[in-house]
Amino acid sequence: MTTLHPAASRATDAVAGSPRRAGTGTTATRILGIATIVSMCWLVAFGLGFSPADRDQEEAVRLLYVHVPTIWLAYLAFVVTAVSSAMYLWRRSLGWDRLAGASAELGVVFMAVTLVVGALWGRLTWGVFWQWDARLTTTALLFVTYIGYLAVRNLGGSHAQRATRSAVLGLLAVLEIPLVHFSVQLWRSLHQGRTFEPNDTNMDGLMLFSLFVGVIAFTLLYTWLIIHRTRAMAMEDMIDDRGLDDALAARRAEAAAVPGADEEAH
Amino acid sequence: MDDAGFIIGSYALTFGAVILYTWRVLRRGRKLADQIPDEDKYWL
Question: How far is residue B41's CA from residue A131's CA, in Å, rounded to a whole number?
Answer without folding.
Answer: 48
